[in-house]
Amino acid sequence: MTFKDLNIIPSIMEGLNKANYTNPTPIQEQAIPAVLAGRDLLGCAQTGTGKTAAFSVPIIQLLSERSKGPKSARHIRSLILTPTRELAIQIADNIKVYSRYTDIRCTAIVGGVSQKVQERALNQGADIIIATPGRLNDLINQKRIDLKMVEILVLDEADRMLDMGFIHDVKRIIAKMPNKKQTLFFSATMPPEITKMVKTLLVDPVKVEITPVSSTVDRIEQSIYLLENGKKQQMLNQILEDKSIVTALVFTRTKRGADRVTRDLAKVNVTAQAIHGNKSQNERQRALNNFKSGATRVLVATDIAARGIDVEELSHVINFNLPNIPETYVHRIGRTGRAGKSGMAISFCEKDELPFLRDIEKVIKKTIPEVKGHPYPMTGVPVFEKTNKAPGGKPAFNKSSAGKPAKSKANPARKPKSEWFAKSGKTTSSRSNDARSNGSRSHSSSSKPNNGSFSRSSKTRNDRAN
């Protein structure tokens, strides 16, 4: 099937041809006809499936066919809501490519950059706005944006908006629009709150489900390094000595962690830039452009900031920290292996991250192969991977815990106080006497609590390990 078979108008076809789009992806094949027919749509799809073109191409066509009035009388007729600035800008860039030979105008409304520039774009007129909820709400409250003429609403990555706490903002925005409109709803997962929204917003929707979570990663070569604590940076430095890794996207759990990894890579002459929420929009966009152009070899990102990063030929994704949500792992490694291409995903795992690894493997329904023979192996087998009880009812410990056994027995009884100075008649220093006397008092006055205290501390350590 080709885009021409989907009844795309010539002006859009010209833009698609210029962008080297030839054959639609599965989600485009299913979604475009439904949207062109005016139906509401519920799309369950991961990133990298061609989702943006699946909703933006038919929107451009519908608005082009319904265009009315002079250019100066433009109103916002389609709103696309996204969770992050990067994703909004990426979608806006794509729409400009698809619509370059039409009369449709679009603009991105995001935080982190000057509002004045966006106000000027709105004053010039925009048919489609792609926005993040925070900045859009600001402009609505300032009466700078009117959504009363919106005909088509798109909620992209709705589950991520829920994760980021934007759902109430989204509901306030929707309340400013006409009740009668076409709604296109995309979400990689369907938690209860999202399911509830779908039932409220969509009317008899066409459902399109592409690439379940467990199979998204099938074409990506995955590996895991089980590392001793504190050795991740050394391992990353060593991996990046391989010059065949031209570009790599490295994920960290925190903004501070992203900055630290970037600094440490610079020390070994690896060009790297960080992208996260504390960076201004201009800094983030500059880092992304440098990465896409090849000026920067490594982009270090947090999960939030990485939404919207779409880099062709990205061969490697490296999880410096494993995510605590398994689906986030799928989102991350989906940055490589795009559009049917293969890719590599490398993950680092310390002992405290092993439960995250176990959850990830349950979701993707496969065991991630471990890389062995590196200089920083994890020592010992984690307690929770063993059985909790050994024969005889005693707790089972591995070799690493046996090396540092927890004291579960009470201290041995000391000599009576009357015998302390009986030996050889020598006088000990007053400091020594005080120390012993204090020790004796604490022991003799609380020998039972001590006994219980040691048992409790041992139990606490076992519980933590488990």
TrEMBL record:
Instruction: Tell me which Pfam families the record gives.
Output: DEAD (PF00270), Helicase_C (PF00271)
Start and end residues of each Helicase ATP-binding domain = 32-208
> Which Gene3D superfamilies does this one have?
P-loop containing nucleotide triphosphate hydrolases
Q: Where is this motif: Q motif?
A: 1-29
Return the annotated region ranges for Disordered: 376-466
Q: DEAD-box RNA helicase Q domain location, by residue? A: 1-29
Name the GO cellular-component terms: cytosol
| Record's keyword terms, sorted | ATP-binding, Cytoplasm, Helicase, Hydrolase, Nucleotide-binding
Q: Where is the composition biased (Low complexity)?
A: 398-413, 436-457
Q: Would you say which domain of life the source belongs to?
A: Bacteria
Question: Cross-referenced InterPro entries, in alphabetical order?
Answer: DEAD/DEAH_box_helicase_dom, DEAD/DEAH_RhlB, DEAD_box_RNA_helicase, Helicase_ATP-bd, Helicase_C-like, P-loop_NTPase, RNA-helicase_DEAD-box_CS, RNA_helicase_DEAD_Q_motif
Q: Does the keyword Transmembrane apply?
A: no
Q: List the molecular function annotations (GO) for this entry.
A: ATP binding; hydrolase activity; RNA binding; RNA helicase activity
Entry-linked CDD domains: DEADc, SF2_C_DEAD
Query: Domain Helicase C-terminal: where?
Result: 231-379
What reaction does this enzyme carry out catalytically? ATP + H2O = ADP + phosphate + H(+)
Enzyme Commission number(s) from the entry:
3.6.4.13
Q: Which family does it belong to?
A: Belongs to the DEAD box helicase family.
Protein name, UniProt field: ATP-dependent RNA helicase CshA
Q: What organism is recorded for this protein?
A: Paenibacillus amylolyticus
